[in-house]
Hints:
This protein is of the alpha+beta class. 49% of the residues lie in helices and 8% in strands. It has helices at 20-36, 57-62, 84-95, 109-124, 126-139, 145-165, 182-185, 188-191, 206-216, 219-225; strands at residues 12-16, 42-46, 70-73, 79-82. It has a four-stranded mixed sheet, covered by helices on one side. Strand 1 (12-16), helix 1 and strand 2 form a beta-alpha-beta unit. It starts with 11 loop residues before the first strand and ends with a helix.
Amino acid sequence: MSTVHTSKPKPFVLYTAGTPNGRKVSVFLEELRAVYGEKVDYDVQKINISRNDQKEPWFIKLNPNGRIPVLVDRAREDFVVFETAAILLYLEQHYDPERKLGFDPVSQPNEYSEMLQWMLWAHGGVGPMQGQANHFNRFAPEDIPYAKKRYILETKRLYGVMEIRLTDRDYLAGPGRGIYSAADINVFPWINVHQFAGIESLDEWPNLEMWLGRINARKAVQDGLAIP
């Protein structure tokens, strides 16, 4: 009699695409996998956003906002999480018991608050503003110089905020020179594609440029950037 071996489903399904928002989550998951192994393994379902897969009824049931990424947690009754910052915080809460990528809200309340501050700052600032810079420089059906200038200048201003924060620091949150955390991962993929937005060089922000190189040197980051 032959024995049939069935593979155990991976804990997560990640619905994603090769965008900065998608790569926030794949980088975070790869960082967790580097620490915890198969406990945070995941399947990837690539969403073709140019074909508007994310607007299909089946996807809207997962995320009524019709945007990637979406994470489904099979280990917790197929619980669905959308919005990148929310996904990172969810993973940090439930799947990083050693707090390798974050801070304990009870024993490290100040550091945890710093992490939240920088995550929400990026979520409401860098992503939307650089996203608009991408749109008006790359995809707008007509050339609108005012819009291109407005969003590039605002993106540069936000880079300047990070430059100030990273003076004498390696990372955005945490004591001393800072500790690599969700705060960094949440904004890194946007800075990493600065040229796509029309910002050719980071020479104007040397601290930011060093921060970017520091994160890009991590193997888990490169693994996450390769997904999907």
